[in-house]
Write a structure and sequence with these properties.
Elements (H helix, E strand, L loop, with lengths): L8 H7 L30 H9 L13 H14 L3 E5 L2 H12 L5 E5 L4 H13 L3 E5 L4 H7 L4 E7 L11 H10 L3 E5 L4 H4 L9 E5 L13 E5 L1 H15 L5 H11 L2 H20 L4 E5 L9 H7 L6 E6 L2 H10 L5 E2 L9 E3 L11 H6 L6 E5 L5 H16 L1
Parallel strand pairs: 2-3, 2-4, 4-5, 5-6, 10-11
Antiparallel strand pairs: 1-7, 6-7, 8-9, 9-12, 11-12
Helix pairs in contact: 1-3, 3-10, 4-9, 13-15
The structure holds ligand LCS.
C-alpha cells in the first residue's frame, strides 16, 4: 500500500488524520471526525490521571494541552505540508508568535523579509524588541542580503513568499541553504501559496506557518493558524509557548477548518485558474499601471515562480494609474466583488492595503517597500471567472470614461 505521504494532495486532504481510531465506537464509526467540544477530560482513578499527566501520549487531559479534534486537523496538516508534525493555533498571528517565541526562547536576533503582513512586521519591529529580540529587515528577494545581515546572535530567518501584499518571491532553497550553513531556523509563512502551491519543507525550510483563516479553511468562518515542522520543534512549541501564552485553537474552529481543508486542492486549483484569467485581463486594461502576479511573464521573478511553485496562487496586486483617488473610486464601484480585508475566501475580496491591512506600517516604510497609495489587492474567488471580470471591468470603466 502507498505510504500516506506518497498519496496525491486531494486524497491526503480528505483522508489524512481521519483514521477510524479517532472515533470512540468500534462499529458504526462516524464517517467524518467528531467534534470534541469540551474543555476537560475525566479519569476513572487518580493513578490513571497521574499517568496521563506524566505521559501525555497516553490520554487527553485538558483542551489547552490537546484535544482529539485538534489532533485530526494537525495530522492532516503535517501530511499536506510534508512535515513531521503540526500544531493548530487560534489564529495566524498565534502561529507566527508561537513559532518565533519557540525559536527565540533564549533570545537572539532575526533576519526578516522587509515586506511582511503588517501584524508580523509589528511583532518583529516593536513587540519582540521590547523583549530584547531585534530584527534586521532586508530585501530577501536577494539572498545575499540575508547573509550580510546575519550576526553572531542571529537565530532565525523569517520569510513570506509570495509576500503580502506585493507578491514578491524569495528563493526558498537558497534561503534554506543559508539557514543551514549558519545553523539558523528558517521560518516561512506559506499562507498565500498553501501546500498546494508550494512545498517549502521539501525545499529545506525548517518551519512553515499559516493563517488557516484564509485558503486552508476557505469558508470565511474561522480565525485559525498552524505551525508545521520537525517533531522536536512542534513539541517544544506545544508544551511551551502555545500552552503558556495560550493561543490554542477552539475545537469548533479546528473542526470547521479540517472540513475546509478536505476541498483545498480543488478550491486552490480553481482560485489559481481564475486568478490567471483575471491577471491577464487587468494587464491589458488601460486604467491599470501594473499588475503583480507570479504567473505573469511580466512578474520579475516569474522564472523563480515556475521553479519553486506548483501553482501561482489566487492573489493579484495592481496599481491603478490614478493613484489613491482612482483606487477609492474603483472599489466603491464594485457590485459583486466585496470590499473586505482577508483573503483566500470563496468570494472575491478586494482591499486597499495602504489604508487597511498595512496602515500600521509607517508611511516611509510603506513607500520604501513599494506599498503605494494606489495599490489594490485582489483575492480572486471561485465565482465564474467571467462574472468576476465583468464586475472589475464595469468598475474600471469609470476610471477611463
Ligand atoms: N500571515 C499572513 C501572510 C497574513 O496575510 C495574515 C493575515 C496573517 C499571517 C495573520 O493571520 P490571522 O491571525 O489573521 O489568522 N492577513 C490578513 C490580510 O491580509 N487581511 O486581513 C488579515
Amino acid at each position: 500500500m502507498k505510504n500516506k505521504k506518497n498519496l496525491g494532495k486531494a486524497t491526503q486532504a480528505i483522508h489524512a488524520g481521519e483514521a477510524p481510531a479517532n472515533a470512540a465506537a468500534k462499529s458504526g464509526i462516524p464517517l467524518i471526525p467528531p467534534l470534541y467540544q469540551n474543555s476537560t477530560f475525566r479519569f476513572t482513578s487518580a493513578a490513571e490521571c497521574a499517568a496521563a499527566c506524566t505521559d501525555e501520549e497516553s490520554g487527553y487531559i485538558y483542551t489547552r494541552w490537546g484535544n482529539p479534534t485538534q489532533r485530526v486537523l494537525e495530522e492532516k496538516l503535517a501530511v499536506l505540508e510534508d512535515g513531521e508534525a503540526a500544531l493548530a493555533t487560534a489564529s495566524g498571528m498565534g502561529a507566527v508568535s508561537t513559532a518565533l517565541l519557540t525559536a527565540l526562547a533564549d533570545g537572539g536576533h532575526v533576519v526578516a523579509m522587509e515586506t511582511l503582513y503588517s501584524a508580523t512586521h509589528h511583532l518583529l519591529s516593536e513587540d519582540l524588541v521590547r523583549m530584547g529580540i531585534e530584527t534586521t529587515f532586508v530585501d530577501a528577494t536577494n539572498p545575499t542580503e540575508i547573509e550580510r545581515a546575519i550576526r553572531s546572535d542571529t537565530k532565525v530567518i523569517y520569510l513570506e513568499s509570495p509576500t503580502n501584499p506585493l507578491l514578491k518571491l524569495v528563493d526558498l532553497g537558497a534561503c534554506a541553504e543559508i539557514a543551514e550553513a549558519h545553523a539558523l531556523i528558517s521560518i516561512l509563512d506559506n499562507t498565500f501559496a498553501t501546500p498546494c502551491g508550494q512545498q517549502p519543507i521539501a525545499l529545506g525550510i525548517d518551519v512553515v506557518v499559516h493563517s488557516m483563516t484564509k485558503y486552508l479553511s476557505g469558508n470565511g468562518a474561522v480565525i485559525a493558524g498552524a505551525i508545521v515542522g520537525k517533531k522536536t520543534f512542534v513539541e517544544r512549541a506545544q508544551k511551551g509557548a502555545l500552552r503558556n501564552f495560550g493561543a490554542v485553537i477552539s475545537p469548533f474552529n479546528a473542526w470547521l477548518t479540517l472540513h475546509g481543508i478536505t476541498t483545498l486542492p480543488l478550491r486552490f486549483a480553481q482560485h489559481c485558474e481564475n486568478a490567471g484569467r483575471v491577471a491577464a485581463f487587468l494587464e491589458a486594461h488601460p486604467a491599470v499601471a501594473w499588475v503583480s502576479y507570479p504567473g505573469l511573464r511580466s512578474h520579475p521573478q516569474h522564472e523563480l515562480a515556475k521553479r519553486q511553485m506548483d501553482k501561482f496562487g489566487g492573489m493579484i496586486t495592481i496599481e491603478l494609474k490614478g493613484g489613491r483617488v482612482a483606487g477609492e473610486q474603483f472599489v466603491n464601484q464594485l457590485q459583486r466583488c466585496a470590499l473586505a480585508v482577508s483573503l483566500g475566501d470563496v468570494r472575491t475580496l478586494l482591499c486597499h492595503p495602504a489604508s487597511t491591512t498595512h496602515s500600521p506600517v509607517p508611511t516611509e516604510i510603506r513607500q520604501q517597500t513599494g506599498i503605494t497609495d494606489g495599490l489594490v489587492r485582489i483575492s480572486v474567488g471561485l465565482e465564474d471567472v467571467e462574472d468576476i471580470i465583468a464586475d472589475l471591468a464595469q468598475a474600471l470603466e469609470l476610471l477611463t470614461s
